Amino acid sequence: MPYDHRNTARRTLALALAATGCCAVLAGCGASQASPQSGKAGASQETPPSQEPQGESGTQSRPPLASPSAPRSTRSPVPAQGSRSLAGRTVVIDPGHNSGNFRHSTEINKKVDIGTNRKECDTTGTSTNAGYTEASFTLDVSHRLRDLLTARGAKVVLTHDGDRPWGPCIDERARIGNAARADAVVSVHADGSAVGNRGFHVILPAKVRAGSADTARIVAPSRALGERIADRFARATGTSPSNYIGSGTGLDVRDDLGGLNLSTVPKVFVECGNMRDPKDAQLLTSSTWRQKAAQGLADGIATYLGG
To answer: What would the pLDDT profile of 110-119 be if each residue is shown by its tens digit?
Structure first.
């Protein structure tokens, strides 16, 4: 979650964690304090301000309990009928957070430059009440998305594959997309807002020019990418845009996320749902629904790229 949720949300999460004897690491998702207009509330350091302290995309989550990793389908993905090839296109997928962040609080709490200010390297991300972590969710969906895009001929690069002890930091995640000269970058997240807050939203970069950040050239194409994803994600999953961020559009513009500020290629964050709401959590923990989510992301990316 790329959020810096409101203080009330943070207090709510802190109390919940204290009650269970769990400790959360505040940092990383990139949540910003979202206003009714701006959307997200601090999910990951790159996630909007929901209602809990999060990092570059969202919420801080409890340490992993019994994270159910639902098995991925073993069937080879088949390109949609009539879809054009994405050969020659490069897509970078950024699985939000890392399960190892829980054990590396010192490293992920160190601040890095995001252009407009300095922010924590990363955060733990959020989790469902049952302990299914955002990091587990994002990696699973990212793998499914990679398979779907590869089947369409795209070159896919992951910012990490659960193969490092922690991180990468939000600035490094941005550099990976830039170095790949990606045609599109999608950072996969899930929010950690209050119960009753439901639905998905896509975070778009604001026009920022400060320090090492200059998003002028990517604002328009990133919006186009985000709009395509929002449309196709809703179709594939049957879920609605967020009822608490984006005023029903499913789109939120933010200037406080390092992953967006430092990007030189079209990039968006996708908060697939709210892990702290029981109804959304039921969807996010379903392997069937996660496949639909990946399909929606793939269809949105392909539509944006003309595939």
So the answer is: 999 999 999 9
